[in-house]
């Protein structure tokens, strides 16, 4: 059993209307699904090429599986139940025995085409449950990609869909099955239930909001943008796609890539990938080893002395700043023991009124101090501006020292 000859492949490229026109011109029946009609036209074309009588419209309109899946040459037929080696019999289109052996009803042919479509669709990896967050557009796109590879009629698609749906999606399809008469009708109802009714508007908004992730490779980002733009109808121009893709890239890549150099998405991907690779190589910077850690100290990098000096000064300045802040936070005004509360409050109020804010802590400490040198108040003896005189540094007695003071000398 041989496959379709290359010169007959044009039959299976025709759309529904073209196929019906070809059958009508040859006075053939137009009943049946697409595979049946294509096989009928193929048989007639072969008969015409070989000079054999054509199949008239009065002949059986049903085509066997062997004829529409893997058509044999008209001059011979292979019987699958024959012993090995198979016997070869001459095939005559008008032969009653052969025609009756391959004749089937229209209902059987329709069931056959649906079964064939189901076996084909099982390889498309179709599955949809209707749960929230599931992508309804991906399901439609997958079906259309499969139909572009293997022609399947709308009728067979709709008959086989329940076997690829489950859950809420299956219940929805069963309730609307009688009203879904074509693939376009199904897509409109499908988007209204599980997708966005205004799909094109939502798709454009999605493209405008799609930005590159912080850790997303730019090639993956541009692939997603291309996939979104492929679903636009009418499609965007190449310049418009590049504009949106470039605008939503990471800032570090936008700085390295010039928009004027990107003529299309392929050029933009090449430039952005190069910029991304350059950034990745410079990001993990490592300082050179010091001469002490080098195998050849004379060949090691030596920083300039000015750089070391400035770095040392910055370290000292930072230490001074931290120590100053710690000292100021730990300093607090103290009140001298034995001073009445009222007097302390009154003195503090007077000091605050006459002393600038910067010297408030110092003024509060010296306002109640007594000088043993001049016997004045308001300062200590170490800060006294009068001429120093002899006195005991412990009790303040005049004309004596700590050792000669009768009150303090015996307390050591």
Automatic annotation (TrEMBL):
Q: Which SMART domains match?
A: ZnF_C2HC
Residue ranges annotated for the CCHC-type domain, each copy included: 370-384
Q: Where is the composition biased (Low complexity)?
A: 100-113, 315-332
Residue ranges with Polar residues bias: 348-357
Q: Which SUPFAM superfamilies match?
A: Retrovirus zinc finger-like domains (SSF57756)
Q: Does the keyword Ion transport apply?
A: no
Report the InterPro entries cross-referenced here.
Answer: Retrotrans_gag_dom, Znf_CCHC, Znf_CCHC_sf
Q: Which UniProt keywords apply?
A: Metal-binding, Zinc, Zinc-finger
* UniProt GO MF annotations: nucleic acid binding; zinc ion binding
Q: Where is this region: Disordered?
A: 52-113, 278-369
Pfam annotation, one family: Retrotrans_gag
Domain of life the protein comes from:
Eukaryota
Task: List the residue ranges forming a coiled coil, or say none.
Answer: none
Question: Which PANTHER family does the entry mention?
Answer: CCHC-TYPE DOMAIN-CONTAINING PROTEIN
Name the UniProt record assigns to this protein: CCHC-type domain-containing protein
What is the organism field in this record? Lasius niger
